[in-house]
Amino acid sequence: MSARSVAGIAIVSVLVACSTYGPTGAGESSDWSDGTAAHVTVVGALTRTFLVHVPSRRRLSSSGLPRPWPLVIVLHGSGGDASAVERQSGMDSLADAQRFLVAYPNGTGGAFNLYPSDWNAGTCCGAANRDNIDDLGFIAALIKTVAVHVPLDSRRVYVAGFSAGGYMAYEVGCQLATTVAAIGVVEGSLADDSCNPAAPVPLFAVHGTDDPEVPFGQDAPSPPGPVPVLADGLPPSVQFWAALNGCTATTAKGAAKSTSANVVQTSWTSCLAADVDFYSIQDGTHGWPGGPDDPGALPPMNEMKASVLMWQFFIAHVR
Question: Class assignment of domain 21-315?
Answer without folding.
Answer: alpha beta
